[in-house]
Amino acid sequence: MIELNQLYQGFRDPTTIHNLAREIQTLASQYPGNINIMEVCGGHTHTIMKYGLNQLLPANIEFVHGPGCPVCIMPKERIDHAAILASQPEVILVTLGDMIRVPGSKGSLAQFRAQGCDIRPIYDPLDTLTIAKENPEKTVIFFAIGFETSTPMTAVLIEQAEQQGVNNLLFHINHVLVPPAIDAVMADPKATVNAFIGPSHVSVISGAKLYRPAVERYHTPVVVAGFEPVDVMESILRIVKQKLAGTAELDVQYSRAVSEDGNLHAQQKVNQYLMIRPQFRWRGLGPVANSALMLRPEYAHRDAERIFSEKLNVADIDDHKACQCGDILRGIAKPKDCKVFGRGCTPESPLGSCMVSSEGACNAYYRYNGV
Amino acid sequence: MSVEIKLPTEKAVQLSHGGGGKEMNNLIKSIFFKAFANPILASEEDAAVLNLDGPTAFTTDSFTVSPLFFAGGDIGKLAVAGTVNDLAMMGAEPQYLSCSFIIEEGFAIASLKQIVASMASELHKSGTRVVCGDTKVVPKGCADGLFINTSGVGRILKPHISVNHLQPGDAIIVSGDIGRHGAAILMAREGLNLESDLRSDCANLWPVVEQLIAANITIHAMRDATRGGLAAVLNEWAQASKVGISVAESQIPVSDEVKGLCELYGFEPHDLANEGTFILAVPQTIASGVVEIINRYGDSQTAAIIGQVEDNHHGKVILTTPWGSTRYLDLPQGELLPRIC
């Protein structure tokens, strides 16, 4: 039998980490400029900060913490949507994880739950099907969030609801896409990113090929990395080697899970039920074209945004003026450059997107950094 | 979540059981008096009469847990161990407890008996007596099965244990592997469908604390790492005593089961609750002896020195990773929610 320890021990081995750090130090010292690596995914931000990997790197390697946290990038008006939906009579609102902590303009979903709204955080989206079946007299709304990684689970939930005739289950779709977010970050002429750590669980679904356009468009190395400390350190080493060699290639460090084409079956399910949304406003980045998904018209009968459209007429709500999340996401500013960081803006009362979830850059800095 | 045993023939608590009449009398006598039998309780006066001598510790706690029965314990065991442990952590011998039940109408009598029996067995471990109590029954839907409040008093045998007494140079000791109660409860809840041998660490800590007191060792601070886990205790200590605390991640004992749950759901073992695991700050010179005593008399044999108290980074707890990088060990925030992907 495989023991858990055996599964991850090698990926957290101090000797391996030290050796990788030493090799990175040696090679990076031969590189004349700065290597600004964007780890797009919040999971990587968390790994880097939690395991203190940034402390093991030379001064000319910097991390730019990207927009890959599905909770962080949710604009306030869409969190308000969730709260409005949850406040409707006979509605159960179901959503994932720490979405319920994030404040909209009138409070977080946790606060609305305390006021009596039926809001249920779940781990497995398919649990929503059970909730809908157990409450046939209620309208159950799945507030769907996440990048390419979690979208297939929503697609399967739609499929199951259709096949089993669970008609009281509706969807509010907030699924977003990684490549347009990378483009939005790189579109800023001040953007300093010159290498990427590619989100790897996204790539398990979409395939490593997802990043080819970025490699070609921006002439930057993209290394698809796993989430353990050794994975991230090895990926940084591969980036440094590419920078030294002057190459810009797509490289898969997380080869134990990521293939070129990804999970075609999952992709097919997503395409069957969802389609590109012409525009989605990202918290911190603003409106980004073709950067999110929506239900296909044939499933309009399950679209909570359409069915409750009169109630959901909420104007765009910007973050606090002092908030620098947009600059932080582009790599122009660090969390500590922001005037409100740790003062007006804390995990308990976040002003901007990067502070809201444990995968946000400011939140990770607030919790772990500064020792 | 309500208790699942709901056969039509089964007896359930009714509103009349809380009405102060015959039914209530029957319930109290046949269940509570029988299980908690002692002369003070049996005297049935309006208040228990106690003979207390010298400095006395006094504490109270209310217990609500879902599910009521979990691997390694139930709400009854928790309600006794929780209050007994609060007294023990102050160096006090747990003597007398009060015990109040708020019961939801329809609650199975058999479940109530089972819970009370586990309270009695836990009381026995520390020679503690329930000397007064109260029972209320509320209409269905007004409580989640059963709530228990216990208060306790105990004679202080070892004074000067305090959150304010940590001193630079002290060793930080944890009495066993952390996070088992929180992990067991999370697993038992709906939604996380996992199978595991994981059991709560829920335990009466007086027997082991009694041995520490008998050995006459110096204890600067001692606290059971309940809600908020190890992280909460260390942060409270660092702030209250205005010292810094450093711990080595590799020295903190965590069972494979707890590690597994944390890996899957994105939790940290040091944020998870414990109900029978405590933290001590003692002078470095006696630390290994303390670990030996705990391992000899405690439930788990995994006590360990995990760090030390320092005279810098006041108010902060710093965790060192096995590869030498450091980070703050922060207080857990908000409710524990599984990560998204």
TrEMBL record, chain A:
The keyword Metal-binding applies. Keywords: Iron, Metal-binding. Belongs to the HypD family. This is Hydrogenase maturation factor. The lineage of its organism: Bacteria, Pseudomonadati, Pseudomonadota, Gammaproteobacteria, Alteromonadales. The gene is hypD.
UniProtKB/TrEMBL annotation, chain B:
InterPro entries: HypE, PurM-like_C_dom, PurM-like_C_sf, PurM-like_N, PurM-like_N_sf. Residues 45-156 form the PurM-like N-terminal domain. Residues 167-319 form the PurM-like C-terminal domain. Pfam families: AIRS, AIRS_C. Gene3D superfamilies: PurM-like C-terminal domain (3.90.650.10), PurM-like, N-terminal domain (3.30.1330.10). Coiled coil: none annotated. Belongs to the HypE family. PANTHER family: CARBAMOYL DEHYDRATASE HYPE, HYDROGENASE ISOENZYMES FORMATION PROTEIN HYPE. This is Hydrogenase expression/formation protein HypE. The gene is hypE.
